[in-house]
Each structure stands twice: as C-alpha cells, then as structure tokens.
Amino acid sequence: MIVEINNLKKSYHPGKLAVNDVSLSIDKGESLGLVGESGCGKSTLARCLLGVERIDEGSITFNGKPLTKASRKHLRDYRRNIQTVFQNPTASLNPKLKIRDSLLDPYLQFKDELQLEHFHFTSKKAFVEQLLETVELPVELGDRYPHELSGGQKQRVTIARAISIEPKLIVLDEPTASLDVLSQGAILELLASLQQTLGLSYLFISHDLAAVYQLCQRIAVMKEGELLDMFQKEDIYDSSRHAYTKELISIF
Ligand code: ADP
Ligand code: MG
User: Fold this and answer.
1) What is the structure's pLDDT at 44?
2) What is the rounded end-to-end Cα distance, in angstroms, of the chain?
3) Could you say which of 129, 155, 226, 227 would form a disulfide bridge with 89 (CB–CB 3.0 to 4.6 Å)?
C-alpha cells in the first residue's frame, strides 16, 4: 500500500462537508480512477492527499506512517513521492522559464536524496532530452517557452516533470479536461504506457467515466462528498453496482 486514506472529512463551511468520511487506498503500480460530477469533492480529496489542504478528521498514511505525525524527513519523502498533474498546463508552467528549466526544477530540488532507476543524470542537457523523449516530444522543445507549445505539448511537459524524480504516485486531476479530443486520447495513451514502464501508481481524477475506464484498473465513484462505490474495472456492469454508478454508465 502506498497511501491509505481513512475516514477523511473536510469542510470549507460549517455544516457542509466537501469530503464526507472517505476511505480509500492505492497500491503500488495501481491506477485508481476517481469519478463524479463537478463539485462532488474530487479536487478537495486530492488537495488533502497532497497536504495542501488541512483535514478536519481522519488520517492519511504514506508507507504505513500517518502524515499528521510525520517528521520533516518523512514529509519531504512524501512530497517527492507524490507528484501532480493538473487540468491546466499553462497555469502549471512558469511562463518565464524555458521548458528545459521547468523540467530540471524538481530534480535540482531533490537531487541529493534521489536514487533514480529509470532516468540517468549525466548532464542537464542529456537529462532534459531523456525526459522529452520519454513523453514523445521533440528534444528541440527544451529551448522554447511555454507559450510556443500547444496545450497537449505543455501537458506532456508537466507529465515529464512529474515523472522526472520517479515518484511512487502521481495525482492526475482532470489532466485531459482542457485539451481537444485528439490530444486527450494521446495523453491517456501516454499515461498508460508510462505507468507500465515506470511502475507508477495513479490517482486519476475525472468527471469523465469513459476516460477513467480507459486508464484505470479500479474505479471509485463520489457524489456530494461521499464515496458511493468502488470496484475493479471488470466489475463495472455487475448488478451490485450502486444506482448512481449505473446512472453514470448509462450516459457513457
Ligand atoms: P470537484 O473537484 O469534484 O469538482 P471540489 O473539491 O473542487 O469538487 O469542490 C467540492 C466542494 O467544495 C464544492 O461545493 C466547492 O464549491 C467547494 N470548495 C472547493 N474548494 C473550495 C475552497 N477553496 N473554498 C470554499 N469552498 C470550496
Ligand atoms: Mg476538481
């Protein structure tokens, strides 16, 4: 188990829980999809998991240790091992930095404690090229600025940055929602292949059940802050599915 969330509660306004008693865990090498309509609490859950939102109740454990009682070293280890890719790649990239410098940033932050298995750091140039090739981008893009790239290319850069320090888990919060349909499909394929080659775990958040179905081995369904259903992908048409899951299936 990489992360385990137990009975998590989070509210922004008294009396209204954005996340209401949610428990879930993510295994090594597993891709868990989290699906539900806009406003149901998916991003709040993700932000709690990333430690940028304070939780009201419950616990989050990483490698068996609760985050609330974590030492600085454990927190840093946690921060390195859980990377993110958000919906809007333009907002995630510093417009003043060349792509190569954005790509190098996580590595330079964590290089003293990194033991890379897949990537090799011989020089900055070679490292950047290896990252760009891994996400199927031309190496020349390293010298460009974000505004010179398409949305799909920028999202590939944020994915390259996330994998550069070989985290255990990547939280993908609607990573294809801002892209055109062609780029969406291509990004999902890239994510699937990276998961295989790098042995990554994903928490893939989307309002789109079809996308979640394509990428994930297990699917969790949220509504109004609550986790209603969680099942292996192959059990999606099982008669024991929650009525709300069946509703989502009927429109996908
Ligand atoms: P989702 O990602 O599924 O669309 P969110 O987690 O963004 O849902 O939102 C869940 C609920 O919490 C919504 O009612 C939303 O309006 C509210 N919410 C989210 N973020 C904040 C915030 N920073 N401050 C106040 N309310 C918020
Ligand atoms: Mg959201």
Assistant:
1) 98
2) 31
3) 155
- Ligand 2 (ion): which residues have CB within 5 A? 43
Ligand 1 pocket test, candidate residues 9, 10, 12, most atoms within 8 A of CB:
12
Q: Which residue has the tokens 């709690």?
A: 48
pLDDT value, residue 70: 84
CA distance 87 to 133: 22
Centroid of ligand 2 to alpha carbon of 122 (angstroms):
38
Q: How far apart are CA 53 and CA 35, in angstroms?
A: 20
Residues 34-69: pLDDT tens digits?
Answer: 999 999 999 999 999 999 999 999 999 998 888 888
Q: CA 4, 8, 12, 17 torsion: positive or negative?
A: positive
Report all structural domains of the chain as residue ranges with CATH numbers, in order of start.
Answer: 3-250 (3.40.50.300)
